[in-house]
From TrEMBL:
Residues 60-299 form the Glucosamine inositolphosphorylceramide transferase 1 N-terminal domain. It holds the Pfam family GINT1_N. This is Glucosamine inositolphosphorylceramide transferase 1 N-terminal domain-containing protein. Keywords: Carbohydrate metabolism, Polysaccharide degradation, Xylan degradation. It comes from Paenibacillus marchantiophytorum.
């Protein structure tokens, strides 16, 4: 049998399997809530009954889900940037919502779309400039964006380094810039630079961890609390987006690295009606004052669908996007 025939049979088998089993969609939603402390263990006290934002809040595209929220405060308002998965383009795009008080959020619009998938829009302020470091694996490089007109217009500032890195997470710590990033197969990479725009160098020990999907892919912004630095990681060992773990970084230099796990802090509830029944995989935290934080998380509920209904929905979305 020729290679072409084997590929055709494989595709036919996969299609028949999808028709028989149906499709499973991970529907992600976002919750924002106040906290008196940095989230360091699984003891969230906020009312988590309803999400703050979900796909139905998105009005300018047909959204399948919203995920990966990041918060900043600017001119006395709170801005939440997040991935919007557009059914029409079948790609992630970046949307923004605004809040006066951190409690009630109003979706605004898509602010960044490319010909490749975008997600994980980490936003941060340096002086008078506002930057965004999203995941851009489809571009085969890590790209830094800068606000041309905040919050709705963004442009590429520079390429930081080449490669298909997952959820790059940036932090300035002890006068040096650091980026933690995952890669396929469960690897954790570490880069450093004296300047935001580079040149960036990979750590001498990078990848720091290999072949471990439980503790390598970043799950949110790194948090510096006093002299201590923490990283969050999504646990994808059983399935994608199951939970989030917290690690304390004990050593961080150009030549050394060491961390230790603190706790499992986010996970699904297994409650059938819950929007986060099947998992959580992201957290961002904004310190508002010494004893007040604003926290954004996401959660998912898996939805099973008939294959033909799923395919028809995709076609309809592409036609009317």
């Amino acid at each position: 049998m020729s290679a072409l025939n084997r590929r055709s049979l494989s595709k036919m088998y996969n299609l028949l399997s999808l028709i028989q089993k149906g499709m499973e969609d991970q529907i992600w939603s976002i919750k924002v809530f106040p906290s008196e402390d940095m989230i360091s263990q699984c003891n969230i006290k906020a009312n988590m009954d309803r999400p703050s934002l979900q796909a139905s809040d998105v009005r300018d595209v047909q959204a399948e889900f919203v995920a990966d929220p990041f918060i900043i405060q600017h001119n006395l308002k709170y801005y939440l940037f997040f991935e919007v998965f557009n059914k029409g383009s079948a790609r992630g795009e970046i949307g923004v919502a605004i809040s006066e008080d951190g409690d009630k959020w109003e979706y605004q619009q898509i602010v960044l779309r490319e010909k490749y998938h975008l997600s994980y829009p980490q936003v941060f302020v340096i002086g008078e400039e506002i930057y965004m470091l999203p995941e851009t694996t489809g571009a085969d490089r890590v790209l830094l964006y800068k606000a041309k007109k905040f919050p709705t217009e963004w442009e590429i500032d520079c390429e930081l380094f080449p490669g298909r890195y997952l959820d790059p997470s940036i932090v300035k710590y002890e006068e040096k810039w650091w980026i933690f990033a995952g890669s396929e197969g469960g690897n954790l990479h570490l880069f450093h630079s004296d300047h935001l725009q580079g040149p960036w160098m990979q750590h001498t020990q990078s990848p720091m961890i290999t072949n471990d999907k439980r503790i390598t892919r970043p799950g949110g912004r790194l948090i510096a609390c006093g002299n201590q630095l923490y990283r969050y990681t999504q646990d994808g060992s059983q399935y994608y987006g199951s939970s989030v773990r917290l690690f304390k970084i004990n050593k961080l230099s150009e030549f050394e690295y060491d961390d230790e796990e603190v706790s499992l802090i986010l996970h699904g509830t297994n409650k059938e009606s819950d929007w986060r029944k099947d998992g959580m995989h992201h957290i961002d935290q904004l310190m508002i004052s010494n004893n007040r934080w604003l926290v954004a998380v996401d959660g998912q509920k898996t939805r099973k669908r008939n294959y033909f209904a799923w395919k028809l929905d995709r076609i309809r979305s592409k036609i009317f996007r």
